[in-house]
Design goal:
Elements: E1 2-4, E2 10-12, E3 15-19, E4 23-28, H1 41-54, E5 58-60, E6 70-73, E7 87-90, E8 95-101, E9 105-111, E10 116-122, H2 124-128, H3 131-142, E11 150-154, H4 167-177, H5 181-184, E12 185-186, E13 189-190, H6 192-203, E14 210-213, E15 238-244
Parallel strand pairs: 1-14, 5-8, 6-7, 11-14
Antiparallel strand pairs: 2-3, 3-4, 4-15, 7-10, 8-15, 9-10, 9-11, 12-13
Helix pairs in contact: 3-6
Length: 245
Amino acid sequence: MVNLSICDFEKRKDFLIYNLGKITLAFSTAEKDRSFNRNTSYGIDNLNSIKNEFRLQDVIYLNQIHSDKAYIYDESYTNIKEEEGDSLITDELNVAIGVFTADCVPIIIADEKSNVIAAIHSGWKGTYNSIVLKTLSKIEEGFNINKNETKVFIGPHIRKCCYEVSEELKEKFLLKTKIDEYKLFDGRKLSMQECILNDIRNFGINEDNIYSLNLCTHCERDTKLYSYRKSEGTYGRLFSFTFIK
């Protein structure tokens, strides 16, 4: 796995941009207090502003429900934003697909050769139910991808340093994943990334094509991020997205 830092990204307003040529991916921050909440008019305005900022035809997202459901999007799928799920896949040009997070894990998948992308929201339920592995399998079934060319990016989320879960949930993860306890946990503090990496590797993605932006939404100090667990009452949402030009 390749650990990325802020220095590896282009900073544009409150986005961290990573360019792969035809494919671009972006992780929003909370530097300008801009929240992307699809349930508020302010959030919708901010989502729509991405179209102008990045010269795109549309910005596509789902009604997220902490599931393992993945959808393939094309321009004929007119009601996609009302679908319930947590993973989007597309090969459409000039359309961003993205996910909302505020401690959960955003994952971007990009195959530059086949021009296929995916955006995934993985909370503990999605992580436990292997939503990333299921999305990779769905991409493999629907598109002519090459595992050696496919890249996976793990964005800012609440990390092992800060994410404590119940003893019952700890036992469930250990039983399901078979990952060594001291690798997966520190006491009851869970590494969702370790579970996700396990699924990515089991699918067959090359180790040097797995990237992680090492920022914790809960304790990061240098870059402002939204965190559900750190907030009191109201909280903002980050938006992670990708598109093909």
